[in-house]
UniProtKB/TrEMBL annotation, chains A, B:
Pfam families according to UniProt: NUDIX, WHD_NrtR
SUPFAM superfamilies: Nudix, Winged helix' DNA-binding domain
Record field: transmembrane: none
All copies of domain Nudix hydrolase, residue ranges: 9-141
Protein name (Swiss-Prot/TrEMBL): DNA mismatch repair protein MutT
Coiled-coil ranges per UniProt: none
Source organism phylogeny: Bacteria, Pseudomonadati, Bacteroidota, Bacteroidia, Marinilabiliales
Organism encoding this protein: Draconibacterium sediminis
UniProt xrefs under Gene3D superfamilies: Nucleoside Triphosphate Pyrophosphohydrolase, Winged helix-like DNA-binding domain superfamily/Winged helix DNA-binding domain
Length: 226, 226
DNA sequence: TCAAAAGTGTTTACTATACACCCATGT
DNA sequence: ACATGGGTGTATAGTAAACACTTTTGA
């Protein structure tokens, strides 16, 4: 310890960019900050890293507390460590993003915090550097979705190719040709077709698919060209 | 301050993956740790984030101290925050990678620390999780080099296309077809040909090129297919 | 019968890759 | 003369993108 003690210690927080998907649009969960500074302003869900707790676990804990879900897809975005990013005290924050199914989360839990789902296209002003965190999280999500099929993280267990395509269109903010998208996705051989159709979107009915529950295949092929 | 004080504070460090290029191979600068724990074991250059100092600046400071260079290309890799990653005390570390020209750095400065350049293909065991930091830094470097021309960061101000190709071969650990590589790079229109030839590598002599000093163009085109 | 999505097939354009080939020149 | 890297051109293959067309069925 003797070699470390001359150095200062800092508060270390995690801030979670919690993303869901609903009605063709990505949504972000924000809540009105409950204490000063910036009390009442829109903020990411966050919490402080405790002793003996990894930042990954701190992020999981925050997620559990705010939406009541565990075993969620989650990834580190970056560290934000400007000394004056929080006007009240120096807090170094590690940003994470999480993908949750909006229908599965604990709504009571969310309501309790006064939290609100915002469509990604019309986000409000956020406190501190939370806006930047969201920006960088969305870039990371695109990178992830470009190399690995993001499906079961944001959709239901079974989904149609239309639903998957709309999700990708929301993530990449552009349209994909229905035929080409179908061929590309199916060529990856990571989906399994069920003997069940969704009749809500078309008269003909579209087959449901599920993700093959093999190892979450990585780097199999590019999905979206950059 | 009243809302924060109930939370613990932590040591926050930066660890720098300092990469250079020499004789067709990427090299990593390591030094024998000067204090316990793990005194004498090979370690990345690191330092603690001070009060009022951003982590970016802490990383710059470490770089200045260890190789005597400023204004170096540098990027955050990730936060490493397992509570027991450092057996002596809890230290949350932010990993950065830096690209330096090996001929330009202050050799006295480096020697003073007992530091040593290791070719990337034969790295020694490192302390703690430094090996993982290096791994992730190399992935980040590949991503960066795949979208943006990495040249002046690791080579001299002027370089031949052979030198640039060898650099890319070192970064991606695979060979590139000389003709195709040349065409691809020149099509990016980010290099300027000088009226000067390097005669050391071939009888015919190869033109030197420099990076056009426009805005460091981003996302112009993929350089390396993934 | 029409609209709307499902699903399949075809055509075109582009680009990565492989590789042939001439050039210049020191040894 | 020949070996070596410099530099250019071309042929092939694979893939992204555009789009035509057929299927199904409720309204």
């Amino acid at each position: 310890m003797k070699h470390y003690t001359k150095h200062p210690k800092h508060f270390v927080a995690v801030d979670c960019v919690i993303l869901g998907y609903d009605e063709g649009e990505l949504c972000l969960l924000l809540y009105p900050r409950g204490f000063e500074p910036s009390k009442g302003a829109w903020s990411l869900m966050g919490g402080f890293v405790q002793d003996g707790e990894s930042s990954d676990n701190a992020a999981k804990r925050v997620l559990k507390q705010t939406i009541g879900l565990e075993d969620i897809f989650m990834q580190q975005v970056a560290a934000f460590a400007n000394p004056d990013r929080d006007p009240e005290a120096r807090v170094i924050s590690l940003a994470y993003y999480a993908l949750v199914r909006m229908d599965e989360h604990d709504k009571a839990c969310v309501r309790e915090n006064g939290a609100h789902w915002w469509p990604i296209s019309e986000l409000p002003e956020m406190i501190f550097d939370h806006g930047k965190m969201v920006e960088q999280a969305l870039v990371k999500l695109q990178q992830e979705a470009g190399y690995r099929l993001i499906g079961k993280e944001l959709l239901a267990d079974k989904f149609t190719l239309l639903q998957l395509r709309k999700l990708y269109e929301a993530i990449f903010q552009r349209e994909f040709d229905p035929g080409n998208f179908r061929k590309k996705i199916l060529s990856l051989d990571v989906l399994e077709r069920l003997n069940e159709k969704d009749l809500s979107e078309s008269k003909k009915g579209a087959f449901y698919y599920t993700c093959k529950n093999e190892v979450t295949e990585r780097g199999l092929d590019r999905i979206v060209k950059v």
